Please model this.
Amino acid sequence: MKDIRLLNSPFIPGVLIGPFTNAHPGLGGVCTFVGEVRGEVDVELLELSHYEPLTLPSMEELAEQAIAHFDLMGMLMVHRVGPMHPGEPIVCVSAAAKHRRGAIDAVDFAMDHLKSAAWFWKREKRNGEWHWIEPRADDYADLARWSD
Amino acid sequence: MTVRIVFLGPLRDLAGEDSREVPAPLGWAGLLDAVGPEVAEQLNEQRVNVACAGKVLGDKTALNAQDGDEVALLPPVSGG
Model:
């Protein structure tokens, strides 16, 4: 199964991962990554904006690629949008497969693509002022790992 | 008979609003005129993409938006 969502309120990853795992009887492994808003000095709030007509369809497409490429039984991809506080989960990606390697690699693949190629814009509030976050060279380098 | 231009990410701050309605049809030259010099300067950079009616354009200068279309200005993403 493919379960792709954008959420504008806090979520508890375990609540999603349990049913996702149960939906794949006969699986050999599930790999899950949960990203949280990093707690850094001065950062009061992180806000993620997106563009509805592109963001969710591109996540669906990314999940389909991962399912085909890593021979998955299913993929869960959940991303927060809107304002959030340090310590809150921002992203959860889970892959179910017959064998562990596919599940682990698929999550790594999906995260690298979400970080560098998904339609999200981030800004953070420090000392009462908003600052846009520029793309990082490391994110592009991570993405390049998957092009052969 | 309008096209809605949507400013995303930092371009929203430069434009001073979320979106703007302009007369249809809208091509590349019309878009540059409609958004003001600061946003136009950004649009001319390769790293800024343009989507029309939900599709990212391979060649943004070939923009040809019709009545009812939404044109989104997409600065580089800062990742998920």
Observations:
- The first helix of chain B runs from residue 10 to 15.
